[in-house]
Automatic annotation (TrEMBL):
One of its GO terms (molecular function) is zinc ion binding. Gene3D superfamilies: Inhibitor Of Apoptosis Protein (2mihbC-IAP-1), Chain A, Zinc/RING finger domain, C3HC4 (zinc finger). Keywords: Metal-binding, Zinc, Zinc-finger. It comes from Aphis gossypii. Belongs to the IAP family. Residues 128-163, 204-239 form the RING-type domain. This is RING-type domain-containing protein. Coiled coil: none annotated. It comes from the Eukaryota.
Length: 250
């Protein structure tokens, strides 16, 4: 969120305080922000690290290397990495030697991840529990609670659900709107649900039985329960390979 004073062509980031001067018609405040303030957490959560890296001309090989570090770390921990005895990051059945992070993959993930959902089309239990205006957009590390939008989550020192210290935030994308549901190539469902029944929007989009509880890495889409996630090797939304899972709590 940028704030203007109404008198000059300048914008100020509400979070880090950097001020940007508008230069021309092709002016992109996000790109200029990434160049001037590389460590702004609000920028990272809104636009993604790969966007910031490209704005600062970071070599693509270095970007790929950074994205592979997490997966290799998980593999070294016998396929399950635990953060502060709370959040578990589990590898999938994909072989780690097959991992290839390409620019096309990064761009596709970013395109899907940062699509804006319309809050007025979402049920209350999918909205930020602080402001009830925006969709839930982040999960808290290490407790895994996903309860807030970006703006509200950045004010947290402690999780408002469990009071555990908030060490960092993970940007996630809840697949709950009608467009994303139509894009999902759902597996055959054996649950006895009539077409007239109102479905809980938190239900797994694959089995329609359990609640959504997992984040896929690297794409960070959320639409499955733990059991279905463990059987998934390719994200059904963006069609990219899934190498790790994080359990969250909505």
């Amino acid at each position: 969120m940028f704030l203007g004073n109404g008198y000059t062509d300048s914008l100020t980031c509400f979070y880090c305080g950097v001020t940007i001067i508008k230069c021309n018609g092709d002016f992109d405040p996000w790109e200029v922000h990434a160049e001037m303030s590389k460590t702004c957490n609000y920028l990272f959560l809104k636009k993604g690290k790969s966007f910031c890296d490209r704005a600062n001309d970071v070599e693509s090989d270095e970007i790929k290397s950074n994205q592979l570090k997490l997966f290799k770390l998980i593999a070294a921990k016998k396929n399950t990495l635990t953060l502060k005895s709370k959040m578990s990051i589990q590898s999938t059945k994909k072989h780690f030697k097959e991992i290839k992070i390409t620019k096309i993959l990064s761009d596709k993930i970013e395109e899907h991840l940062f699509q804006k959902l319309a809050p007025n089309l979402l049920p209350d239990n999918m909205l930020c529990k602080i402001c009830y205006k925006e969709v839930i957009e982040v999960a808290i590390v290490p407790c895994g609670h996903a309860i807030a939008c970006i703006d509200c989550a950045l004010s947290f020192n402690y999780c408002s659900m469990c009071r555990m210290s908030c060490s960092r935030l993970i940007r996630i994308h809840l697949c709950v709107n009608k467009e994303n549901d139509e894009n999902l190539k759902l597996k055959p469902c054996t649950s006895k649900i009539s077409s007239g029944d109102e479905l809980n929007p938190k239900l797994c989009k694959v089995c329609l039985k359990e609640e959504m509880l997992t984040v896929f890495l690297p794409c960070r889409h959320v639409y499955t329960c733990v059991k279905c996630a463990e059987e998934t090797s390719e994200c059904l939304v963006c069609r990219e390979d899934v190498y790790s899972l994080i359990k969250i709590y909505l």
